[in-house]
Amino acid sequence: MHTENIVTAGKPLSEATKALIMVHGRGGSAEDILSLAAHLSVKDFALLAPQATNNTWYPQSFLAPPAQNEPWLSAAIDQLKHITDHLERRGIAQENTYFLGFSQGACLTLEFLARNAARYGGAVAFTGGLIGDTIDKSNYNGNFGGTPIFIGSSNPDFHVPVERVQASTAILREMGATVTEKIYDNMGHTISGDEIKLANSLIFS
Could you tell me which residue ranges the Phospholipase/carboxylesterase/thioesterase domain spans (predicted)? Predict the structure, then answer.
């Protein structure tokens, strides 16, 4: 199970009015994902990056039956819930709480948000989709109330099929999110400069 290990940067929570939760991908680290902040318009944000035990949030593909990713998947979702609850206790309102994830971290972020939909500040998913061999909408609750979400991905992407990205976008929109989806031809499994630009203009402006 994941041991809670949250690396922080940016403004101290005692001074910040906004917070960004940054979720690294498989094999990555909290420090890796935090390094992206230098390219984002988040200088006034408190930054919080949880570190997955053994650098992996769950062991199998996000397209595997969820039971095959347990108990890690539930522990990872619980960790994001603990962080958002902590932020609320420290005076950061939900509408000032933001999310960003890459790859496995993007999938985890979107799954957490769909299970806990509310009016957040915004979310960025660099190559990700909702989790499961099939998407189980019975797990999802709440309404996003117009929360802006940007999802960028590549066609093709070896890990994240475009069809799952599109299906995820449709569900998030049904739940009240304002989703901007952009699929790049042959971008590869990476984060592009254009995605950073869109994240800044759509989510962090």
Answer: 12-200
Tell me the C-alpha distance between 141 and 95, whole Å: 17
Question: Closest by alpha carbon to 195, among 40, 4, 61, 91?
Answer: 40
* Residue 193, Cβ density class (10 Å: 0-12 exposed, 13-18 middle, ≥19 buried): exposed
Per-residue exposure over 12-22, b if at least 16 CB sit within 10 Å of its own CB, e if not: ebeebebbbbb
- pLDDT tens, the chain, 205 aa long: 778 899 999 999 999 999 999 999 999 999 999 999 999 999 999 999 999 999 999 999 999 999 999 999 999 999 999 999 999 999 999 999 999 999 999 999 999 999 999 999 999 999 999 999 999 999 999 999 999 999 999 999 989 999 999 999 999 999 999 999 999 999 989 999 999 999 999 999 9
For 101, the enclosing helix (H) or strand (E) is: strand 97-102
CA 114 to chain centroid, in Å, comes to 11
